[in-house]
Design brief:
By secondary structure, the protein is of the alpha+beta class. The chain contains three helices and four strands.
Length: 108
């Protein structure tokens, strides 16, 4: 039985998300996250500790297209640039949240 390329790609994205989540855990605590699929758009949605606000990766109105998710799970080096793009999207969201937390802490 052949593997489902979307499922494989989602697992790759989830591993990267979890690795980055561990890096930023001291600054940003995520209590819940899940995939949202809208048409061919795949988004990671998560909530921070002590808030009901949802955060989206890459953003609420624009998800990763299905092909991006499929190719992310394909280890062919031709897909390295795409995997880097996905990782950068995740990392930028975390860095933005860290900056918000630091700004909030400085004004409190």
């Amino acid at each position: 039985m052949a593997k489902d390329p979307v499922h494989t790609g989602q697992r790759w994205v989830e591993r990267v998300f979890e690795e980055i989540r561990q890096e930023y855990q001291a600054y940003v605590t995520i209590v819940d996250w899940e995939w949202y699929v809208v048409g061919n758009a795949y988004l990671l949605c998560f909530q921070l500790q002590d808030t009901d606000r949802r955060h989206w990766i890459p953003c609420e109105q624009r998800g990763f297209v299905k092909a991006y998710i499929e190719y992310a799970g394909d280890p062919n080096p031709v897909n390295d640039e795409l995997r880097e793009y996905i990782e950068v999207c995740i990392r930028r969201k975390y860095e933005s949240l860290v900056q918000q937390e630091l700004s909030h802490a400085m004004t409190a």
